[in-house]
Amino acid sequence: MSAPVSATTSPILQVHPLGFPWPTIDPFLFCAYHDDAYPRANAQMGPDAPVQGRQIGADFSRKDGWSLYHGHPVPGFPGHPHRGFETVTVVRRGLIDHADSLGAAARYGDGDVQWLTAGAGIQHAEMFPLLNQEADNPLELFQIWLNLPARRKMVTPNFTMFWADQVPQWHSIDAQGRRTDVRVVAGRLAPADGGTGVDQPLAPPPDSWAAQADADVAIWTLRLDAGAEWTLPAAAGAGTRRMLYLFRGEALQVGGQRVQGPAAIELHAGQDVALTALGGAPVELLLLQGRPIGEPVAQYGPFVMNTQAEIMQAMQDYRRTQFGGWPWAEDAPVHGRDPQRFARHPDGREERPAPAPAAA
Question: What span, in angstroms and rounded, lies between the C-alpha atoms of 225 and 281?
């Protein structure tokens, strides 16, 4: 049973400013929001714009509204290793080209999600190819790092694709006719009013903390019309922690308290919380929640283990094995100019999203 929200009990635990990366809570390790206004493309699938004044190889400048990150000419993140956690990449606009040390490849975006279990170790590249030479190439995505418990840190790496048309979408209309939309990447959604929600979410990878029955992991994106009112339902599990990120829009009323955006809002997860979008434009939010793993975290860059000895072992293993080597001719592979999305797994199995329905 959820605890009621009263005038004397604030559902807000803390409010944090949003920088880069965003603050997170156990079981999450990291959350980065990329919103890049890339211009039209050049012949190399990079931005057709001057790059003078940027630190090539480490450009996080957001000069002119975009960054190259570690890539050039194509923006993105060339081959790099991970061990001991998962990446969940939610692409709202634009495309990502994936390549990894197991020989797998993918092009995904425009609503797709890739869930990568790094486990015992993998190298991968995440490049942002710009395909449109006649118009701008906006890119918008979240990358979320979800920890693995000690017993799962050395599992076999794998990735799962959630194509855009598979991700459950839910909406509500308030008494004034204003709409709230929720995309449910992970976790169930049981509306506070007892109505029909999302009770059959997509299955996380089997070794994920999110696959544990009592982990109560949820990853949702929300959009509220200007002035829309909606009650965020209480989390199902005892001990669950919840963070709500207000990343677009002027402000949000949370249980009667105004929060100016952009902000990360840590909430009492066991309460239903009344939300109202304030200001003259829609408000957009990301919700991350889960029961904490509650284990020690030892991190060195892309390696996340439980002890410093395990970090040292990860570094030695990577130097010795390169986590399977790198089967690509370059460290930043891209997959041509064909915009079609696909995924090719290490066993050679290929998948593609369902074609969009024909216009009526």
Answer: 7
The reply to whether 119 and 244 lie within a common domain is no
> 238 lies in which domain range?
12-19+168-201+215-290
Segment 260-280 shows an average pLDDT of 97
How does pLDDT run across 224-246, given as a tens digit for each residue?
Answer: 999 999 999 999 988 999 999 99
Residue 305, in any domain of the structure:
no
Classify each residue of 73-110 as buried b or exposed e, where b means 16 or more C-beta atoms within 10 Å of its C-beta: bbbbbbbebbbbbbbbbbbbebbbbbbbbbbbbbbbbe
* Interval 281-297: pLDDT, tens: 999 999 999 999 999 99
**Which amino acid, one-letter code, is at 47?**
P
Residues 43 and 137 in one domain: yes
CA dihedral sign of residues 204, 313, 151, 303: negative
What is the pTM (predicted TM-score) of this model?
A: 0.95
Same domain, 37 and 156: yes
Whole-number pLDDT of residue 357: 58
Report if residue 275 sits inside a domain: yes
Strands 241-248 and 283-290, sheet pairing: antiparallel
Examine residue 323 and state whether it is found in any structural domain, yes or no. no
**Number of structural domains found in the chain:** 2
Q: What DSSP string describes 336-347?
A: -S----EEE-TT
